[in-house]
Amino acid sequence: xxKYYKWKVLLIIAIVGFSLWKVYPPQEKIHLGLDLQGGMQIxxxxxxxxxxxxxxxxxxxxxxEIIRNRIDEFGVREPTITKQAKDLVVVQxxxxxxxxxxxxxxxxxxxxxxxxxxxxxxxIQKAEQAALATEPNKEEAAPVGVVPVAGxxxxxxxxxxxxxxxxxxLLLQKEPVLxxxxxxxxxxxFDQYGQPIVELQLDGDGAKIFDRVTFQNIGRRLxxxxxxKVHSAPVIRDRIPSGQAQISGNxxxxxxxxxxxxxxxxxxxxxxxxxxxxxxGPSLGRDSVTKGIQAGLWGALFVFIFMPFYYLxxxxxxxxALLVYGLxxxxxxxxxxxSLTLPGIAGFILSIGMAVDxxxxxxxxxxxxxxxxxxxxxxxxxxxxxxxSAILDSNVTTLVTSAILFVFGTGPVKGFAVTLTIxxxxxxxxxxxxxxxxxxxxxxxxxxxxxxxxxxxxxPNFKFLKNRFWAYGFSVMVLALxxxxxxxxxxxxxxxxxxxxxLVQVRFAKPVSTEEIRVALGKTGLAxxxxxxxGEESGxxxxxxxLERETKKLEDAFKAVAGEAxxxxxxxxxxxxxxxxxxxxxALWAVFWSSLGILVYLGWRFEWKFALAAVxxxxxxxxxxxxxxxxxxxxxxxxxxxxxxxxxGYSVNDTIVTFDRVRDNLKIFRKMPFQELVDLSINxxxxxxxxxxxxxxxxxxxxxxxxxxxxxxxxxxLLIGFSIGIYSTVFVANALIVDxxxx
Length: 743
Known about the structure:
Elements: H1 5-23, H2 26-29, E1 31-32, H3 34-37, E2 39-46, H4 59-74, E3 80-84, E4 88-94, H5 99-107, E5 112-116, H6 121-134, H7 138-141, E6 156-163, E7 166-173, E8 178-179, E9 183-190, E10 196-202, H8 204-216, E11 222-226, E12 229-232, E13 244-247, H9 253-265, E14 272-280, H10 282-311, H11 313-335, E15 339-340, H12 342-371, H13 376-408, H14 412-445, H15 468-489, H16 496-499, E16 501-508, H17 514-523, E17 530-533, E18 541-546, H18 552-562, E19 567-575, H19 577-605, H20 608-631, H21 638-668, H22 674-684, H23 686-706, H24 712-741
Parallel strand pairs: 1-15
Antiparallel strand pairs: 2-4, 2-14, 3-4, 5-8, 5-11, 6-7, 9-10, 10-13, 11-12, 14-19, 16-18, 16-19, 17-18
């Protein structure tokens, strides 16, 4: 009996009770990520170079605060606005479906200026002559209202104003007489024509300035300029001592309301640029939740049926531990306010399969001890003791890849890393502590307890490494084919996250063809875009990719194709070139640091030849999975990088188990030839390899078949990677140490 038995029981009760408290009710405590509930994520870059040097230090922090104030007034439930690096701000808006309105509110600088319009006929004449001489492109200038001409008199600028279909060029004084710093309130009103306007109220000092300016310039025009664009330029009829002004400009009620909102919240201290946008429609989110839960239930059901079927009483104990594992995982997620994402669901399902691995390792060790004639109590104690090092090493290396993924990942990928990390820690607790306490309880009640189990392989004696050179040839051939395919496909291998551009997933209400969409895109000037059906071949859902960041032309084309039946934008990913380059770099560093972390840890726990062989096997599996993935014509994106790092963790996990047995056998069979000893070690762990692989592959297959199109690529590469991981453990990692040990 473990002398710490009572303390362990109290610890389990406390952790389970705490988890139940934190997770109940789950619909309120477990927050869904944007990919599961719908919404937007926007990455903003603050243009710090446009801020005076002595005011840059806190500019990004002030941008965060002002955007938070705007979003609070906008009424978004549980938004997240966080600073990322010195000039980046991440804005998450759950439930938002009006993309353009949200981007306008978040990204508008809202720099308000009042500028006098010049009435000097000579200056106006010079400006008009300069404008005629340079022949400005007014179509490009119109959106911001600036006429880019040389020869304008010093201290002045030309602006375009459009009002009720009439366009006029104005000469403004560059220096404003008043700015939005003096604004205390902005609200929606209506002019004499019933059109919405924005009414402004200035503070005391602002009212005094406005009173003086209007008194001194009666009869002149005063332009109201917002973010460089003239919205109106009324004639000053009389002095205005009240400090009240208004902005007109053919607004809709919604536009006027949004403008008043951003003006009340204040101007941003620097312009911002939208570097990345990710939008998920609510229908796609609901579909992802349904299919993710369905996949999870199938995966979990298999594990819960298989374990007691194969291991009998011990399997039932493992099922109880898995229930504790699931509860603790959800409790910790609720404690950390972590969001459950679609890759997070995948991580949870996979960690169920990987959690079984620790139980299988322990149970197989217990079986070996029982075969030596030990009592159940002694066999249980020895089994836990001997399995601990393999469990620790394999889980630590998986934690290394999860930590790297968290550091270098963004959005849903971070969610995957968090869920997987929590799952690994919870699985170690459930497998090592919970099951041991249950076994101690059972043997205390019945000292003669019999632990019977089925056995897939009875004393196998396969000569695996005899044919290792054929395996080397097979690996080289497949890797060459895969790498060649990756090279030939070039940019086609990568999603917009790594090459920049925009991906739009659209669902039409009526049947349409790819050719119809292509023709409509051609009419809007988008002729080389990639169009693919999404999901079922007979469905009306498509993915369109373009190098352009603006989606208006795409939406115009969709309207032309859909007609009166209509369409729905279910997903948008828009990535700027700077972000795509950064993501490429982060993905490469993630793989590099994961490999280095595994190498260093295994070099410490084993000798360096073992560590290097394990890393070569990991790289083999990575390239193999990428190659087969490319041959299948699928696209590499951030979730795929997450999958690759998961494959790396699983691959080294499997390798460590056999290495651990090799290390033990080296102490026992000192005179046995090394190749025979490695073959013996592989055979001794064959049951564990087969059973763990079976449960993990079944959980992954559930993701592939039931998880829906949104997670299909992710599950596909995991299936490839996990399958080849079994092969590489024997025919790469163990084969290499045999050949390296011989020299």
